[in-house]
Design brief:
Helix content: under 10%
Mean pLDDT: 87
Distance between the termini: 37 Å
Number of helices: 0
Low-confidence stretches: none
Shape: globular
Number of strands: 8
Length: 108
């Protein structure tokens, strides 16, 4: 199952009911304007393989709970305002093929 909200210019919060989509494999939120950090509700999407959070206005640290998304093959976190060091959570993703962290404010 795939959800694509790319380039819709939507803003606000993800509906809590989205966490009930246990078979969701692809989530594109490119350009969906959030504020704050990545919603932890995404951590419940255990079947997720592709997560596109490009240009969503996220800031702060990349959350440690991402290591629980073990089926991930592609993560796009580019063009946000993430800070700090790039976390080790990506080390355990054996299926990860593509990781884009460009245009953020990482250090180290």
């Amino acid at each position: 199952m795939e959800l694509d909200f790319s380039a819709t210019n939507l803003n606000g919060q993800l509906p809590a009911s989205m966490c009930n989509l246990k078979s969701l494999q692809t989530l594109h939120l490119f350009g969906f304007q959030f504020s704050g950090s990545i919603p932890c509700s995404i951590s419940n999407l255990k079947s997720l393989q592709i997560l596109d959070l490009c240009n969503c206005g996220f800031l702060g640290l990349i959350p440690a709970w991402l290591e629980n998304l073990t089926q991930i093959t592609s993560l796009s976190f580019d063009r946000n305002q993430f800070t700090g060091e790039i976390p080790n959570v990506f080390n355990n993703h054996r299926n990860l093929i593509s990781l884009d962290l460009s245009t953020n404010n990482f250090r180290g």
